[in-house]
Amino acid sequence: MNAILALENGKVFKGKSFGASGERCGEVVFNTSMTGYQEILTDPSYKGQIVAMTYPLIGNYGINTEDVESRKIFLEGFVVKEYSKIASSWRSEKSLGDYLKENNILGVEGIDTRKLTLEIREAGAMKAVLSTLDMDEKSLVEKARKSSGLVGIDLVKEVSIDKKYVRSGQKDKFKVVVLDCGVKYNTLREFAKRHCQVVVVPSDTSSEEIIKLKPDGIMLSNGPGDPAAVSYVIETTRKLIGKVPIFGICLGQQMLGLAMGGKTYKLKFGHHGVNHPVKDIRTGKVYITVQNHGFCVDIDSLNKKDIEITHINLNDNTLEGMRHKRLPVFSVQFHPEAGAGPHDAEYLFDEFIEMMKKHKA
């Protein structure tokens, strides 16, 4: 079945469908990961986006039930150069194409992903439409231009859970409340490995309700879209600062930045992949990190009397980590839980454990 990806700047890319049929709008971004497509598909942070993989062959090890990072696929569409119809892995339970069809997600192959990536790098992430129904290029470009995009849109409410649930470690030394803005399962696994009881709560849970749970620490999770649009989480975060140790990841860092008086802005084409170099300023060490975000905290907007910059992106010098100088609060813009990707940054979970120990003593 023929398929078309049309961008708001008028550029059109033609390919063949290997997933569900239909039509979806979203912001088109590229991801530089060579592996980990199943984790990318199930990362809630991709809600509202059409993801194009730069690695040319995708699907060669199939899909299994163990590597999902959330309860379903949240992205709007999946674009690859070549889809491997053969899945050769002992862990494979089904093909990527079947998985996309089951979840009603459009998958398109045969598109020149190098050309598409260069287009995004030059023009920036753009609104787009992916379709197997409408083959009128002008019509699709117009649909892309009229779509809502990500700026000013609250996508967190579309990925967060409806009611809280508990996940326990082997020995519950600490209770961590995770404010779910689109958390990945591997974050919960990392806490469980460190003997933490994890209580996952919906994104609209109030600060008062969270404090009633008597947490030793609070995790502000990753999530999709424009952080400035999620004012209720920012307000909750503001009220929690200083009351209990807080660790923010990705969108969680952006929420903390806004709650502490900073500003966020949209990156040209975002950071999406598992090979982003980040320097820990405190030690001088460089870590290869997993990243997935289109917005960032403006370093110059932060109050340097209260906030210390801890990590910097070595590709573009954007903010990758910060810490409050007096209060038990820190965050990073990347994904230390990996899933998929390198495990370089797992030490941050240990730092949070130490912070909770110190605060509890």
CATH class of the largest domain: Alpha Beta
CATH topology of the largest domain: Rossmann fold
Helix content: 10-25%
Number of strand elements = 19
How many domains? The number is 2
Under the CATH scheme, the architecture of the largest domain is 3-Layer(aba) Sandwich
Report strand %: 25-35%
Q: How many helix segments? A: 10
Low-confidence stretches: none
The topology string of helices and strands comes to EEEHEEEEHEHEHHEEHEHEHEHEEEEEH
The class by helix and strand makeup works out as alpha/beta
User: Can you list the strand order of the major beta sheet?
Assistant: 10-12-11-13-14-19-18-17-15-16
Major β-sheet profile = 10 strands, mixed
Kindly, what is the distance between the CA atoms of the first and last residues, rounded to a whole number of angstroms? 63 Å
Looking at the structure, what is the overall shape? globular
Instruction: Kindly report the name of the CATH homologous superfamily of the largest domain.
Output: Class I glutamine amidotransferase (GATase) domain
State the assembly state of the protein chains.
single chain
Radius of gyration: 20 Å
